[in-house]
Amino acid sequence: MTQDLFAIGNNPPIAVDHIDGRIPYFAIDGIFRDPLAVREAALALPYSEGTAHYPGRVARFPPDNTSLIGFLRKVVSLVEREYLPRMPTPPDGRKPARVRGVDTDFAITDVPPGRLSPEQRRPHIDAVPVFGLVYLNAEPRGGTLFFKPKSAAPPSIDRTGYPTRSDEELEIAGHIEGRFNRLAIYPGFILHSAEIEGAWIESDERLQKPRLTQRIMFFI
Prior knowledge:
Elements: E1 14-19, E2 23-29, H1 35-43, E3 48-49, E4 56-59, H2 66-83, E5 101-109, E6 130-135, E7 144-149, E8 170-176, E9 182-187, E10 192-194, H3 205-208, E11 211-219
Antiparallel strand pairs: 1-2, 2-9, 3-4, 4-5, 5-11, 6-9, 6-11, 7-8, 7-10
């Protein structure tokens, strides 16, 4: 394994775009110096089932990995310096200025659409106000979609498959392209879902060339 596996690329640029024309997110391309090595090392980890809303498996690096610790420190510094001043106020009304803690894992999406639970068939919000996602797929495996309700009524549609389209209740409000070696940083309290579509998720390709992401949770 590379000694500094999670080394950041040479001054990767920060692109700022918006969900629904008003909610900023960051897209940082070329985040890792050697993304193929990160993918290979991550896929070698022991995976277990994820949370109820995650359609796949998750794994962690040892918490004392010095390269990972260094990477997370740099990303936290970036979030505090560049993203928090731009971020909209969370639902609790508390405008954060610091990151209190950070956690990370790796996730593989491999549940076919016909096997999704009702919770997995609808967009969700995260348990943290700021979320980071590194897309680690050379093949097209989709990015992240954001949604907004069309009314204040509680959801009633029993959707089938992954949420990838607007419908009577929800409208797509934004999209982050899942480019290989891109770090996306966005507010976790906006309804969103992985962009999962195509033949790969219903074939053995979902296991042979899995959709892998690194998830980064920022506690503020």
